[in-house]
Amino acid sequence: MITRTLLLLISILFCFTSCTEATNNNRLQATSSPPQNLSEDTVGLAKATFAGGCFWCTEAYFERLQGVQAVVSGYAGGKSQNPTYQQVSAGSTDYAECVQVYYNPQQISYKELLEVFFATHDPTTLNRQGPDHGKQYRSVVFYRTPEEKKMTEQYITDLEQAGAYPNKIVTYVQPFKKFWPAEGYHQDYYKLNPKDPYVQAVAKPKVKKFESNFQNKLKPEYSN
């Protein structure tokens, strides 16, 4: 009985682990090398930038999609130069944790990326996703063209008219200005840190649900 109670308490504590806390716990073991994804050949690929909570989860979703060549975690939506995770996670900047997706539009469309984005986070919670709260975790679509802006706004309208969510969508639709890659230890975090408490309690269930819901869009290595 005592053992079962102890396990339950540990599970509850894991569920309240935040992205920030998990990173701080692993910081001493991490390196600050440049993101490996940036060395991949992305010439000729389209880019899309989304913010939807902790970038560890968001990165894991998009990198599983057919047609996506690379996904880089980073920061967008702020004005200061060279933001660091310490600054962003403290909420002392205007930046949001986000991902930059490099994709082949012949294999996957921008609208399909929007579909995945809105289906993998709660766009109705202001400055919060699960245990992560603060403006750095806000929901944002950073559009690059008037067509992307129009498409995003129309998609949001369609979701609201369909009653997809019980509450109003609060996702920001903002022009893309600058993307700053996050520190090296944030890249491929889900893949490289499978035993991390946050990954186990928060990210893994979300990713598994995503894989189940988007089987027809997954790369072969992620299909059942």
TrEMBL record:
Range of residues in the leader sequence: 1-22
GO molecular function: L-methionine:thioredoxin-disulfide S-oxidoreductase activity; peptide-methionine (S)-S-oxide reductase activity
Positions of transmembrane segments: none
Keywords: Oxidoreductase, Signal
SUPFAM superfamilies per UniProt: Peptide methionine sulfoxide reductase
Active site, per annotation: C54
Domain of life where this protein originates: Bacteria
Enzyme class: oxidoreductase
Annotated catalysed reactions: [thioredoxin]-disulfide + L-methionine + H2O = L-methionine (S)-S-oxide + [thioredoxin]-dithiol; L-methionyl-[protein] + [thioredoxin]-disulfide + H2O = L-methionyl-(S)-S-oxide-[protein] + [thioredoxin]-dithiol
Residues covered by the Peptide methionine sulphoxide reductase MsrA domain: 47-198
Pfam families given in the database record: PMSR (PF01625)
InterPro entries, per database record: Met_Sox_Rdtase_MsrA_dom (IPR002569), Met_Sox_Rdtase_MsrA_sf (IPR036509)
EC number: 1.8.4.11
Protein function: Has an important function as a repair enzyme for proteins that have been inactivated by oxidation. Catalyzes the reversible oxidation-reduction of methionine sulfoxide in proteins to methionine.
HAMAP family: MsrA
Protein family according to the UniProt entry: Belongs to the MsrA Met sulfoxide reductase family.
PANTHER family: PEPTIDE METHIONINE SULFOXIDE REDUCTASE (PTHR43774), PEPTIDE METHIONINE SULFOXIDE REDUCTASE MSRA 2 (PTHR43774:SF1)
Name of the protein in question: Peptide methionine sulfoxide reductase MsrA
Source organism: Pontibacter oryzae
